[in-house]
Write the structure tokens for this entry.
Amino acid sequence: MKAKKRAVRPKQRASALKQIQDQKMARSAFDYVRGSTEKFYDWLGGIDKGTIPDGPPIWTCGDCHLGNLGPVANVEGKFEVEIRDFDQTVIGNPAFDLVRLGLSLASDATVSDLPGLTIADMLERMIHGYEMSFDPNFDQKRDLDQPKTISRLNKKAEAATWTTVAEQDIDNEKFVLPHGRAFWPLSAEERREINDLFATEEMRDLATRLPARKDGADMTVVDAAFWRKGCSSLGRLRYAVLLQIGSKSDDRHHCLMDVKEAVKARAPDKPRADMPRDPAERVVTGARCLSPYLGERMRAVRLMGKSVFVREVLPQDLKIEIDQLDRDEAKGVAGYLARVVGKAHGRQMEPAARKAWRAELQRSRSKSLEAPTWLWRSVVDLLSDHERAYLEHCRQYALTR
């Protein structure tokens, strides 16, 4: 793999990352929604009590948009579509995840030039799919009809191997992380601290969890780099670490570790919620409750004096990327992903709480529409706010670039 862009030195990172984030958010209204989580939380903080129903206190994603769901694998190599980002996870109101997902889907539909009637149909499918996941007999593999978008993504995940990861992120000729667009050089202090972290037994245990790797095997940091990845989290510490596990040529394995800084969540939590104070511990705890396949592969540690979490990048871990949606596909994706979110929420509730929450969701709706009034009004209000903010962002970006 050849680097196509000049690498950014450590002292240049802050300004470079801000410029990249502004550019990403100016690409489309959908990209702006993905990168402007603060605006969503500000909106939640400004609405009147009772505008959105108050669901049971459970671990929520906090930033449940389209790109934060996708196939993730467990240590045995099995995979399911789950929530895959937990930077903002808190014990909060599950309805907020529904509103955020609805906003993301509606924004993507708008960018895809779909009519308002399709957005209304998408929210119908979304709430129907979410409620279906609370049925006691619900089975994701049996009851979820995969839209073409999801089916293609799952086939890609099923076929993925270590070679897939290497081809995307690693220079196979030199077996290093190539400095350029995605990977930037480290400072001497960063490299030293990363080497020290991956010399610990905790990291060895994490890296040898896959069945093919021997417990207690030797582990060496082959290369490491600052990882320019994401949108709303740009500006925080993010590192890619390439490891060799095992010392003999016939028993060596390689893996790529993602090390990401965790910060205090902006997503609103429930009063007196019992959550870990350490941001990375909060992220890992939320992940284990919402997405067990991914959560079991994460660890909370300290690096550079900051709270970070570590996970191995497995070949099956993919995000949902949709350039254009047609009407039928948009409705299918909305229903499918809502059921995935509903399963993540429902597994944390006792049967009585699931029944009560489902009954609450079925209130405040017209005789002919399934989507409750509060969901429709919230998404429309947010779409309007974000469209206005997006255009202003583009104007400011144009003035400063």
